[in-house]
Design the sequence.
């Protein structure tokens, strides 16, 4: 158990509070999108074997926010490594939990060897994916509520990958001090001269400030890189919104119609049907629009009119019409009425397939 009343733990809390507050100034106070995103990630780490629909429901119950399945999937795809499939979660989350538990063990014991064990587990995954530091931070505060005495667990919900990385550095430094993993300066201990001790302390202070400056410069570069990445993501989102509107009911599902008309034209050509020259311009327009969609790497997800067997997990990713699935292993035959569309380069769903259960009478 952590002795929360000990001066050493209070000093630890003050240290991480100062570290996190210094990062807080670099966030936009009115932007709550990161908070929702991080709360969702915490929920996924807490209940990894649920699905998007269940996570949406729990987010609504806990935080009063309304999320749809596509938003959940988008968030889980935005992390690196990704967490959008059960296989990914089974592989990644145990590593995150192992590092977080090692940190908390160090807090419980205050022993240098436990800090070193945490550092070993942290370093094993820290640089293998940009989202690992954020996931570790979120899990540490979630699994150790004592650390939230000054509200820092709520503050880290405002941070994405770049800031979380440097918060994790600060947490690691604070744990090192807490566990006494600081090498004693034997020269200072052996010398009884005050001026020599002061010189050594000043040298240590200079070294510390130089390291802090280097870390600050690295953080600024990482923040710039993250900003550039977000700018690119915004452009992609704008493009996907445009194509999503094209395939909305409001505009008659234009992408779906393009597929149908293109298929009809190809059938007419195979049958050598003579078409009136007055409508040749219409065919050219359809051909150009189809090429525009292809050039932007917008692809159908399913084949229209096809029939196949699916399980509940696949049905959750579609607009499904039919009887409910009794369990996750049950299979049902469905027919595809709308293929759904995806931006292939980034694996972003623009619209969901519309499917209907095929009954025995059909």
Sequence:
């Amino acid at each position: 158990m952590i002795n929360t009343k000990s001066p050493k733990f209070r000093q630890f809390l003050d240290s991480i509070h100062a570290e996190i507050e210094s990062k807080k100034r670099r966030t936009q106070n009115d932007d709550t999108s990161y908070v929702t995103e991080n709360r969702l990630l915490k929920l996924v780490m807490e209940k990894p074997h649920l699905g998007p629909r269940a996570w949406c429901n729990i987010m609504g119950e806990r935080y009063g926010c309304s999320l749809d399945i596509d938003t959940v999937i988008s968030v889980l795809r935005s992390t690196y490594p990704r967490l959008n499939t059960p296989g990914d979660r089974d592989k990644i989350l145990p590593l995150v939990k192992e590092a977080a538990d090692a940190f908390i063990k160090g807090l419980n014991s205050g022993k240098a060897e436990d800090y070193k064990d945490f550092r070993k587990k942290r370093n094993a995954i820290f640089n293998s994916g940009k989202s690992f530091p954020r996931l570790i931070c979120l899990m540490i505060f979630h699994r150790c509520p004592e650390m939230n005495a000054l509200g820092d667990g709520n503050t880290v919900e405002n941070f994405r990958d770049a800031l979380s990385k440097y918060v994790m550095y600060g947490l690691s430094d604070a744990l090192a001090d807490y566990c006494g993993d600081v090498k004693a300066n034997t020269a200072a201990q052996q010398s009884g001269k005050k001026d020599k001790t002061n010189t050594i302390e000043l040298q240590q202070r200079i070294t510390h400030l130089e390291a802090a400056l280097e870390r600050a410069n690295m953080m600024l570069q990482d923040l710039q890189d993250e900003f550039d990445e977000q700018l690119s993501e915004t452009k992609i989102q704008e493009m996907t919104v445009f194509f999503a509107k094209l395939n909305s009911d409001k505009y008659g599902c234009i992408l779906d119609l393009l597929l149908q008309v293109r298929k009809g034209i190809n059938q007419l050509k195979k049958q050598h049907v003579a078409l009136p020259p007055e409508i040749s311009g219409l065919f050219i327009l359809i051909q150009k629009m189809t090429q525009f969609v292809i050039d932007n790497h917008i692809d159908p997800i399913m084949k229209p009119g096809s029939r196949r067997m699916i399980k509940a997990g696949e049905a959750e990713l579609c607009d499904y019409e039919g009887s409910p699935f009794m369990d996750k292993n049950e299979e049902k035959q469905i027919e595809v009425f709308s293929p759904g569309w995806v931006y292939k380069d980034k694996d972003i769903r623009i619209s969901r397939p519309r499917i209907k259960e095929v009954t025995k009478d059909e």
